[in-house]
Structures are given as C-alpha cells and as structure tokens.
C-alpha cells in the first residue's frame, strides 16, 4: 500500500533528513544570496537521480515523472532563504554565519521537500502523474522569489493543476497539521514617508513647520484609514513601525522619516486603502506647512487556498495522519509570497506542527531562539510525499 511505503521510507530517511536540516541551519543565506544552499539542493536531487535546473539565479526546479506522467501535474514548493537575525540557540548546528539565521523554518521546508522528492522518486512506479519540485529563493524580501520563479516559467511546460506548500508552526504540537480553505494570510505592503521643512530652533517653532509634530499627527491620523473606512468584517492592519527624526533637544529637524506596513485580506480594499493613505498623508502634511515624499512598496498578495483543492488535500492529510491530527488553521495577518502561486493556479498552503511544549520548544518564528521538534521533519516529508502522490484536481 502506497501510504505505508511512504511512511516506511520517511522513517528510514529520517536520520539523513535531520542531518540535511542541520547543514542548512548551520549555513543560512539571506534572500537572493542562497548560492551554497541552491548548490546543495541540486547536489541532493542529483544524488536521488532527479533531473533539475536553475531558475531565478538561486532557485531550483526539479521534475519527477511517475506512471502515466501526463495524467496529472502537481507542484510542491519550499523556500530556502534565511533572516538577518543573530541566533541565540546553543545547539551544535547553530548558525555559522554571524547575524544570519534560519529563524522562519525555511531550512525545515527545504529539508521536507528534499525528503518528499527522494520518497516520490523511489516510488515513482507506485503513483501516477508528474510532480514539479520548486525550491525558491527570496521569500523574505520583496519582490518575493515566487514572483520571479513564476516569470521564469516554473508553472509552465508542463503546467501544474495545483500547487501545495507547507510552513512550520511552533505553536502547533508536532504531529498535527492545519488546513483552511479560502483566504488564509494577508497581503503585505511597505510604507515609506519622509516629511520635510526648513527646520529651525525649538524655541521659535513659528519660524518653521514642526516636522516632529506633523509626523506625530500623521501617525495617529493614519489609523482612521482602518477604523473609519474599512469594512469591519474584513481584517486589516496598518502599523507605523519606525519614527526617525531629530538629534538634539533644541532643534526642530528638517526631516522626519516614517516606515510601516499595511496588511489586508481583501485585494480590492487593499488598493483602495493605498489611495486613502496617500490622500490623507499628503493633505495633512501640506496643510501643516511641510512637504512629503510617500512611497508604498506593493508587496505580496493575499494567500488564497482554493476551496476544492484544500478539501482534497485536507482529506488526504487526514487519511495519512489520522483525522484527529488535522484541524482548521486560523486566519493570519502575516504574509507569504506563496500568494503569487495561488493567483495563477489553485494553491493550498498548510501548517506543519513543529512545537513541543514538554520539551520547551515554543519560540515563535522570526525570533533568535526559534527551533523545532525534529520529529516534524519525518512527518513533514512523508505528508508532502503523500500529497504529491495522491492529490488530483479535476
């Protein structure tokens, strides 16, 4: 039975996969600089006998053909980049690259897909269709490696009918999985604002426009975009996260810089809000006598899980792991460039439990102490192989 064969191989390869994860974790690379990671992935695929090619400079695209390869085409995706965070874990495989860390679990994602690739290739006479293997760069940084991989044709020749991806979740106990149909993660846009005046003496504010006061007013006023304009049933967040200006007690600075992020679950509202942000900010700053430069860096779209595909994948996951271990995922205002794929073909982005409260493994992603219960690697690789071998969109 295919399911039991996948489980057996996932267990057999578990030790190798943990070693792979340790290598990747110890040698993290930032977005679009994943040169050694890319070479390592290609080396492993070649060892497994899987043809692959380079895409988007540091991306890798592999292909496995099962029986009747034209019957269906499914894509499996993993991201490979790390974050500019200094690791605080005291483990033998801690990062060797100072100030760079796999704090979001992309080392685990890459390892799981390598494991699934090896399993699927070894069992390619046991399942039908073709599986594309997408190892992408730059998930953590605009414009998002997914968008570049798509432009370079990873969803063509042959075109998958669906794509699946996973993300480790340290707040979910190892052995459990989460799925959700429809909107699941928010869009993410970056806001950059510079407010300028001629500056002046703090004792004579009437002689200039007070950039500190204006910026403070703007930070507060921007919240009206959310509270007074957004549909209250559609989640959205606008956060100003950086306020830079001034250098001493008696000078009104000539320039103040603000930075922030805007998140939305609705693509139409997303771009309506951009217009409102520009209008409010420009009119407020100019009305108070200063000048403004405002740039909104349009980032990742919402992640939308195709309802039909999600239902198929969730049922398959329950068959593989047991229905008690599969639950509904929560909405998250975090962003993921997997959303680019789901705009082109049906997508399903699911969560892999990686935490273990009893072992003290609970630190969140994007923190210097993030880690996983490594039992998740065997489970993640096996589940990904099972979904790749069985999910079919018609």
Q: What's the layout of helices and strands?
A:
Elements: H1 2-12, H2 14-26, H3 35-47, E1 52-55, E2 59-65, E3 73-79, H4 106-122, E4 130-136, H5 145-151, E5 162-173, E6 177-179, E7 182-185, E8 187-196, E9 200-201, H6 211-229, E10 236-245, E11 251-252, E12 255-264, H7 267-287, E13 291-297, E14 303-305, H8 307-321, E15 326-328, H9 338-344, E16 347-355, H10 375-390
Parallel strand pairs: 3-4, 3-5, 5-16, 6-15
Antiparallel strand pairs: 1-2, 2-4, 6-16, 7-14, 8-12, 8-13, 9-11, 10-12
Helix pairs in contact: 1-10, 2-4, 4-10, 6-7, 8-10
Q: Any overview of this molecule?
A:
This protein has 394 residues and is of the alpha/beta class. The protein folds into 2 domains: 2-184 and 302-390, Zn peptidases (Aminopeptidase); 187-297, Alpha-Beta Plaits, CATH 3.30.70.360. It has helices at residues 2-12, 14-26, 35-47, 106-122, 145-151, 211-229, 267-287, 307-321, 338-344, 375-390, and strands at residues 52-55, 59-65, 73-79, 130-136, 162-173, 177-179, 182-185, 187-196, 200-201, 236-245, 251-252, 255-264, 291-297, 303-305, 326-328, 347-355. The strands form 4 sheets. An 8-stranded mixed sheet has the order 1-2-4-3-5-16-6-15, with helices on both faces. Helix 1 (2-12) packs antiparallel against helix 10 (375-390) and helix 6 (211-229) runs antiparallel to helix 7. The mean pLDDT is 97.
